[in-house]
Amino acid sequence: MPHRLYRSVQALLLLALCIFFAGKLSSGQLTYYINARFIPLTIFGVVLLAILAQTLFSENRRSRRQEDAGDDVHVHEHKPAAANLWFMVVPLAIGLLIPARPLDSSAFSTKGFNTTGPLVSSDSTAQLFETASEDRNVLDWIKIFNYETDVSAYIGRQASVTGFVYRDDKLAENQFYLSRFVVSCCAADGFAIAMIVESSQAQTLEQDSWVLVKGPISSIVINERNAPVIQAESIQAIPVPEQPYLFP
């Protein structure tokens, strides 16, 4: 491939990647892939891609002017291999062809899920005890029940928790899992957590539908560990949140 054509295609691909990531940033879909704390780094990357693309466009314009002036600027340069461009084409094509959507119950078969104690440390649990009961999410409740040996103080407290529905054949007919994915770095390392919900509506809820569940907390022992259960007083269907993942 001629050197100038190669640089032009390379610049266009860099610009396309820049626009793609900028679009994901503006739509909020970038956090379907990565932890929100990496957003500033992504913004820096978008700016860098734009600068690289502009640099290549400027180089091509300068090369064209030199050729028009009679200088053979590429006489000693090797022609770059077009195959190198696939390193940019493939990720761009994957991003454009595969719709952006958060992880759901279809990932349970490969990733499994946790109901007792993910990512628990004294630092991460310290502020949980000061958080209002109804402001705690699925991860908060699971952390508390894993951290505390005596959970009697939390029995009967009102919870207001959102998540997607996951039904398991091992549960009773009036039970389902209220689930969320926890992402430390990116979706590849995401894993599911779940709280059992007891409700007469359990069999009417669609798999993967998002709901807001309110009701008092009770306890169950799973694998010799305490786990929270919501005795649902109300279940409200909600749209998928702008941020479907939880970040530890």
Can you describe this structure?
This protein has 248 residues and is an alpha/beta fold. It folds into two domains: 3-97, no CATH class; 105-246, OB fold (Dihydrolipoamide Acetyltransferase, E2P), CATH 2.40.50. It has six helices and eight strands, in the order ααααβααβββββββ. The chain has helices at residues 3-27, 39-68, 86-97, 108-111, 122-125, 138-147; strands at residues 113-114, 158-166, 175-182, 191-198, 210-222, 225-231, 234-237, 245-246. The chain has a five-stranded mixed beta barrel with strand order 2-3-4-6-5. Helix 1 runs antiparallel to helix 2 (39-68) and helix 1 (3-27) packs parallel to helix 3. The two termini are 48 Å apart. The mean pLDDT is 84.
Reading the helices and strands in chain order gives HHHHEHHEEEEEEE
CATH homologous superfamily of the largest domain, by name?
A: Nucleic acid-binding proteins
Integer average pLDDT? 84
Cα distance spanning the termini: 48 Å
CATH class of the largest domain: Mainly Beta
Q: What CATH architecture of the largest domain would you give?
A: Beta Barrel
State the total count of DSSP E strands.
8
The number of domains: 2
What portion of the residues fall into strands of 2 or more residues?
A: 15-25%
Helical residue percent?
A: 25-40%
Q: Are there runs of 5+ residues with pLDDT below 50, and where? A: none
CATH topology of the largest domain: OB fold (Dihydrolipoamide Acetyltransferase, E2P)
Which word captures the global form? elongated
